[in-house]
Design goal:
Blueprint lengths: L1 H22 L5 H12 E5 L2 E5 L8 E11 L2 E10 L5 E10 L5 E3 L5 E5 L4 E7 L7 E7 L3 H10 L1
Parallel strand pairs: 2-9
Antiparallel strand pairs: 1-2, 3-4, 4-8, 5-6, 5-7, 5-9
Length: 155
């Protein structure tokens, strides 16, 4: 009986030591940075890079479900943006297209403004301008209000 108690104490001590020296999950700034960067840029789809362009949007807006189809000789992409909160957001998005090797295939993209109401899901589509446009970079962000206001004042 005494040997069993010693064995249990030894195993408990080893488990505590293992948890203290590297087996516990990482905490602190390095762990937070890893999580933030993975959340801001999603590369899980082979033909889509989905970017949340502001840390303030993390956990509040999700960019999900990239889909592709062929329209004639061109590729068309669709992504879904979902408001995860009970707040209303005015945001901007843009599609950039790349070829199979990761080079820019369409550099004429512009920002488009849209509004998401609480818990709303909205889909956005884009068609590549040439047959080499096979992958997308989709970015959603808050509008750059300071830039827009200063531009209006100059006119």
């Amino acid at each position: 009986m005494m040997q069993l108690m010693k064995l249990i104490a030894l195993i408990a001590g080893l488990l505590i030591a293992a948890g203290a020296f590297g087996c516990a999950p990482a905490i602190g700034p390095a762990a937070t940075q890893r999580t933030v960067s993975q959340s801001m840029i999603d590369t899980s789809h082979p033909r889509a890079k989905l970017i949340i362009g502001s840390k303030k949007l993390l956990g509040k807006v999700a960019v999900i479900d990239p889909r592709f189809r062929t329209v004639g000789q061109l590729n068309q992409a669709e992504v879904t943006v979902q408001n995860l909160t009970d707040n209303r957001y005015t945001l901007e998005y843009k599609f950039d297209w790349e070829d199979n090797q990761g080079f820019t295939a369409d550099s004429r993209s512009v920002w488009h403004r849209f509004t998401l109401t609480p818990r709303q899901t909205q889909r956005f589509q884009s068609t590549g301008k040439n047959p080499q446009a096979t992958a997308i970079i989709y970015t959603v962000r808050f509008p750059d209000d300071a830039f827009i206001e200063s531009y209006k004042q100059k006119k």
